[in-house]
Every structure is written in structure tokens, then in C-alpha cells.
Amino acid sequence: MSLQHYLVISAILFTLGIFAVLTRKNAISILMGIELILNSCNLNFVAFSRFVTPPEIIDGQIIAIFGIVLAAAEAAVFLAIILAIYREFGSIRPDEVDTLKG
């Protein structure tokens, strides 16, 4: 496989993530779309690190690991926010939550 194959797969993942974020009404589906976007970025980092830089430099893989850790932390915070919204409003649909507590 060449770099172009990885870039095409990454572009497909990114497009699917954007589509999920823009079209879904459920907060969990929006979170999955964001995760797809982050995974496509990680795939780009690893692909460019493998094909463009010398083999002994693993900067792309290290950045991808930080991206995975960031995605896990983001998912934990997002799920905590979803639980708090569900307790307050009884729904996790983002369009139904329109007031903020003061």
C-alpha cells in the first residue's frame, strides 16, 4: 500500500465523521463522528511518519498516541456532560437542550 491509499482511507473516515456530526440528532452519534475525525487525523500522522520521514524517526506514532489519549479523555468528559444533561432535561438530544442554568 502506498501513501495515497492511506490518505484516501483517511479522507473517507473524515468525511463520514463530518457527515455524522452534521446530520445526527443524538449526542452519542455526534461523539462517534468526532471520534472518526480524530482517528482520521491519527491515521494521517502515522502514514506520513512511515512514508515521508526516515524509519528511525517515530514522531508521527508518538503524536498519534497522544491523539488517542486525548480522544479517550474527551470521550470521558463528553459522556459525563451527557449524563448531566440527561439528569436535568430527560433527553440527550442536543436540539432539545436550549436553556442554561444560571
Question: What report would you give on this structure?
Answer:
The protein has 102 residues and is mainly alpha-helical. The protein has one domain (3-89): Helix Hairpins (Orthogonal Bundle), CATH 1.10.287.3510. 75% of the residues lie in helices and 0% in strands. The protein is built from three helices and no strands. It has helices at 3-23, 27-51, 59-89. α1 packs antiparallel against α2 (27-51) and α2 runs antiparallel to α3. It is elongated and about 55 Å long. The mean pLDDT is 90.
Tally of separate domains: 1
Q: Mean pLDDT, nearest integer?
A: 90
Low-confidence stretches: none
**Do you know the CATH architecture?**
Orthogonal Bundle
The helix count comes to 3
State the total count of DSSP E strands.
0
- At the first level of CATH, the class is Mainly Alpha
End-to-end separation: 54 Å
Look up the CATH topology: Helix Hairpins
User: Overall 3D geometry?
Assistant: elongated
Q: Which structural category do the helix and sheet elements fall into? A: mainly alpha
Q: How do the helices and strands follow one another from N- to C-terminus?
A: HHH
Radius of gyration: 17 Å
Percent helix: over 70%
What is this structure, in a nutshell?
The protein is mostly helical. It has helices at residues 3-23, 27-51, 59-89.
Key phrases:
mainly alpha, 3 helices, 102 residues
Helix and strand arrangement:
Blueprint lengths: L2 H21 L3 H25 L7 H31 L13
Helix pairs in contact: 1-2, 2-3
